[in-house]
Amino acid sequence: MDVAKLLDELEVVIEEGWSIPLAKRTLVEHGTCVYLIDLLRTALPEDLAEAQLIKQNEDKILTDARAQAEEIVQLARRQADLILGESQLMEMAKLRSRAIVQQGEQQVAKIVQRAQNYADEVYLKLERDLNFLLAEVKDMVAREKHALAEAERDFQARDWRRGTRLPVGRRNDVPR
Questions:
Q1: Assigned domain for 167 exists
Q2: Cα distance between residue 92 and residue 100, in whole Å
Q3: What value, to the nearest 5°, has the Cα angle with vertex 118 and ends 116 and 121?
Q4: Does residue 28 form part of some domain?
């Protein structure tokens, strides 16, 4: 039987004993107390032997417990290093991706600026070419007007010499 239970039963027997008035003494059942004490004596050697065995193996048990604790600590450190390494890799990957995106945005901005500059240059060249062509066309129209005016004066001068003068703009009405 368990020593703790036997001690509990002995305590109950003592508590249930008869108190002697005006004295700090209690009467208990002798037979029950002796019986419980005998059971305690038989149970104690087992518990004492077990306690001595634990005491003898205390160093081994502590050494084993410390070794297990150290293994657990080492495993935890390896896992923490692994997690930290993964975390650092993730952080490095995020930084690298940000740098790549930023570099891409800068390249896009440069390309857009170059395209804008090229479009501006093409527009200015086209505007210059059109202004030049417009000037040439105006000059050509002016020369043609001048040539036409001279031709008309020459024509009128020839008609004048012949004695007939045709009004300008009514030549088609002249009988032949």
A1: no
A2: 12
A3: 110
A4: yes
